[in-house]
């Protein structure tokens, strides 16, 4: 039996989540301590965002290249696995070089820190594109929203581990002669990352390119057609008739065309991905401001410390304590988002996709706009924990829309990489605008965070324009193939949900 015909094992949907947890643990350590480390080797607040351009620039360049290359990779190890392994090796190397850069001679500290930081972001982006594509490749349609919900769980798990490590005073200690705290923290994070990626890569079952069935004959595509025709349009057809050739052709005609001969712009998935991408662009404008400055804000403007002070000085101790407070708060964010990912599917079913997404986006805006009024460690902890709610929606809803819309597309890697641009482009924008904003507001970091909040407000408004794939309304239900498809009983939300049979259909 070919791997294309082999039924997916129950644990397949968990494997991308494990690797994603490892990636998020690395991101958490980087977000928690990259800016303080860069500041400690002589970089100013105004130049820090320019170094953070590494993430979006590598995302714009690396992910589309790796995505398109992995789509046509004929390696005997699979299409996605070779790139994930290469990215993992480079990530471990870059992470440890970056952590040890403060221990080098003074003249080498800053250039080595910047170079390894850029290599680290490029390596992580080398993993993330194939990792998202692996969900669409290896997980059946009915289980893909659950797999994306598991990504939200894995995001919380990884962040809990990474920020939890960063909050420990035992792993991050600085004195006048010791910088070993960075080495120990980043070393443990790289070991956790390597273990989780190794498990995911070794157990994942990939379908070789030569064994992929055509779109119309794909069992998982037929399953989506059965979900759509029976569950959304109200057709009384049986499960067997809904997957008949005539029904399939009707659905494909309504959805649009796909295949190597159809341009990306006319692919059936493109309108879904474009509109979700507009929201994600505004959302990541907000998130990236927190990635760059959240811990620095806590250490400098809430704890009133200084990253420029000598290790062991009172000002440096205040700064380090503020950074640890922010890491503890972000650890709480990770824990709560992990718990929220369990109940998030039920919330979506009760409140509707767009309404849930809009409320979470609005909360993100309120948290960031309120940062100028936070003046105590308790306020940092509360705001950090509240970030768990929009974080859950960011990692669940838009990516579920993307993977569900790709079931009629042969360009999974390309489209997941293109959607990642909606996260990279606003990161470039906030990196370039931050120095100007800081100059305008006398170097106050809260000015950048509040500007990110305005981006989240824009994202809230754009959600009304999003197309929701029909199968999303039967999301998070793991179907038993021997059981007939169950239809959704929830009525669409009047403000944010449209009639999925017509209004959310995609014109060709």
TrEMBL record:
The coiled-coil regions, if any, are: none
Q: Where in the cell is it found?
A: Membrane
InterPro entries (UniProt xref): MFS (IPR011701), MFS_trans_sf (IPR036259)
Q: Which region ranges are annotated with the description Disordered?
A: 236-255, 488-508
List compositional bias (Acidic residues) regions by residue number. Answer: 499-508
Report TM segments: 50-70, 82-101, 184-205, 326-348, 355-374, 380-406, 444-466
Lineage: superkingdom: Eukaryota
The Low complexity compositionally biased stretches are: 238-248
Q: Does the keyword Membrane apply?
A: yes
PANTHER family under this entry?
Answer: SOLUTE CARRIER FAMILY 45 MEMBER 3 ISOFORM X1, SUGAR TRANSPORTER
Protein name, UniProt field: Sucrose transport protein SUT4
């Amino acid at each position: 039996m070919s791997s294309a015909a082999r039924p997916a094992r129950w644990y397949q949907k968990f494997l991308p989540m494990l690797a994603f947890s490892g990636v998020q643990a690395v991101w958490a350590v980087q977000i928690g301590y990259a800016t303080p480390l860069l500041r400690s080797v002589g970089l100013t607040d105004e130049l820090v965002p320019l170094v953070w351009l590494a993430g979006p620039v590598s995302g714009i360049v690396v992910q589309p290249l790796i995505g398109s290359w992995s789509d046509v990779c004929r390696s005997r190890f699979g299409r996605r696995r070779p790139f994930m392994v290469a990215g993992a090796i480079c990530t471990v190397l870059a992470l440890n070089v970056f952590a040890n850069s403060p221990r080098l001679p003074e003249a080498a500290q800053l250039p080595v820190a910047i170079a390894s930081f850029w290599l680290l972001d490029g390596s992580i982006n080398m993993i993330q594109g194939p990792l998202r594509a692996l969900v669409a490749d290896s997980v059946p349609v009915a289980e893909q929203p659950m797999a994306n919900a598991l990504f939200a769980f894995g995001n919380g798990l990884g962040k809990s581990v990474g920020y939890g490590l960063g909050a420990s005073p035992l792993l991050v200690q600085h004195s006048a002669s010791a910088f070993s705290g960075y080495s120990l923290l980043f070393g443990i994070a790289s070991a956790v990352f390597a273990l989780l990626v190794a498990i995911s890569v070794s157990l994942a079952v990939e379908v070789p390119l030569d064994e992929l069935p055509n779109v119309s004959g794909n069992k998982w595509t037929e399953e989506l057609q059965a979900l759509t025709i029976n569950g959304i349009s109200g057709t009384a057809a049986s499960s067997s008739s809904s997957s008949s050739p005539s029904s399939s052709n009707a659905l494909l005609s309504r959805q649009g065309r796909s295949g190597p001969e159809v341009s990306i712009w006319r692919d059936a998935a493109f309108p879904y991905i474009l509109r979700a991408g507009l929201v994600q662009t505004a959302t990541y404008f907000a998130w990236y401001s927190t990635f760059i400055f959240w811990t620095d804000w806590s250490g400098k403007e809430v704890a009133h410390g200084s990253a420029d002070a000598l290790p062991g000085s009172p000002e440096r101790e205040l700064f380090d304590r503020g950074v640890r407070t922010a890491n503890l708060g972000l650890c709480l964010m990770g824990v709560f988002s992990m718990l929220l990912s369990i109940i998030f599917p039920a919330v979506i079913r009760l409140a509707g996709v767009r309404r849930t997404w809009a409320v979470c986006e609005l909360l993100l805006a309120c948290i960031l706009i309120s940062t100028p009024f936070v003046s105590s460690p308790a306020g940092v902890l509360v705001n950090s924990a509240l970030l768990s709610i929009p974080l859950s929606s960011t990692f669940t809803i838009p990516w579920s829309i993307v993977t569900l819309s790709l079931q009629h597309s042969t360009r999974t890697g390309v489209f997941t990489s293109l959607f990642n641009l909606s996260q990279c482009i606003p990161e470039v924008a906030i990196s370039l605008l931050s120095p100007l904003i800081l100059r305008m507001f006398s170097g106050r970091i809260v000015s950048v965070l509040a500007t990110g909040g305005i981006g989240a407000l824009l994202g809230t408004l754009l959600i009304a324009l999003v197309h929701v794939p029909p199968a999303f309304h039967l999301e998070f239900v793991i179907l038993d193939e021997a059981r007939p498809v169950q239809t959704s009983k929830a009525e669409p939300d009047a403000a944010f949900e449209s009639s999925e049979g017509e209004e959310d259909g995609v014109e060709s």
